[in-house]
């Protein structure tokens, strides 16, 4: 099957301005400037569609598409006036960061919220992160946060970008449904003082076992950088700093695993509370 | 500081037979043929040294070494007759898969055990894995297994290789201390029938909550492939198949996170049992 696309002309040049712009979305600077990011593959485009993510442009290689659902998605976006670029396989591969872009990609608008507008609601928890070196770890954290009903991430530095292509891929679609806030440590500190959030940090040198804490709703789990962990200045902001026990020669867990263990503890406590009512 | 190495001559050619052999250890075929693998950086070489891993050869670039501990390690291996190759920065970078090899690497012998010699002891648990697509996931699983006191992994297919360089790096040193077994599903099935191991599989479609199972010692946690999960044929071998609950749009967790959540449940149950005695 080859998808049919109405009112479109085939782009076969790497120098087409839209193609050049999309390729440059791999760079953080271009993502910042445009407020956009690029997702690829039918799974991700379908996820964007189902999650009503703000899609600005669709990129399609009709001869590589062989799923009727793709055609439905394309026709939907055409109907609502989203530009659909039809490209050759060479062009699609040229803008793609994966081996098999499956004939479809989308330019999506980033969604950021302001911390000042976030107030405690019925959300289970947030994850606050200082620096995350690995984009894959960040994406995996978002995937786990969605799985346990977490709201999203509060990023406390400029370098960490959830819209990095490697992060987006690792989210497996959670990128469209998790919430994102970027702020400074100082603003975070002041905001935390005004609101009734429980802030829990983690550190291998803490003396409180992570299972000995009662996690209120909403909790914020604050995780430090890979290897370095949470600096003292951030530990000082926390209501409690807990440790995840380890034995043997281990001195740390992978950041995405440690966050997963914390998030499942928060989730499990909530589940037990619900069944005991 | 520049490390001093006795009785050594500087290698400056990429075509030196030892250098060519080490470079080829990136390939699975060469690792199989030689039964060796290559680790790099002071952290890993120091870990190999402390764990008494079977080091066959050391590769050293004296001008890039600036830690007295490195010199102690080098002198130890020289004393016990392990060859120490002294190389130029260009040669070390040429065999390295990381940005900063820190002036030192080691060729280490792989350690595999035979399943038939494994009998239930006082180990807390094993992880059995069918196919693991991501070497980073496999390494992260080994890192978590060490952290909770797990014995190691039982690999049920030929493709999955814990000695892949990306896996080794992700273990953060657990590669030297975890135990490794490779076997077939049929041999695993027969071995499991003879011994008193509890085999627990995971599947999103299982009806038993992973927290509602009492994990005996020793338990084997059986994890399926990324995305695909455990096939029916493997679920059929399990004493129980459990699910890790998820909410929202999530249909799966990252494999290393899911394994981490399972391993911490096994570990937490053991910890509670110990404190209640």
| Helix percent band of chain A | 25-40%
The CATH superfamily of the largest domain in chain A is SPOUT methyltransferase, trefoil knot domain
What is the CATH class name of the largest domain in chain A? Alpha Beta
> Roughly what fraction of the amino acids of chain A lie in strands?
15-25%
Q: Tell me which oligomeric state these chains represent.
A: homodimer
Q: In whole angstroms, how far apart are the ends of chain A?
A: 53 Å
Largest β sheet strand count, sense and barrel closure of chain A = 7 strands, parallel
Number of helices of chain A: 10
Shape of chain A: elongated
Could you describe the 3D structure shown?
Two copies of one chain form a homodimer. The first copy, chain A, has ten helices and twelve strands. Helices cover about 35% and strands about 20% of the residues of chain A. The first copy, chain A, folds into two domains: about 100 residues, 60s Ribosomal Protein L30, Chain: A (2-Layer Sandwich), CATH 3.30.1330.30; about 160 residues, Alpha/beta knot, CATH 3.40.1280. The mean pLDDT of chain A is about 95. Chain A is elongated, with a radius of gyration of 21 Å. In chain A, α6 runs parallel beside α7 and α6 packs parallel to α10. At the A-B interface, α6 and α10 of A face α6 and α10 of B. Chains A, B: GO terms for molecular function: RNA binding; RNA methyltransferase activity.
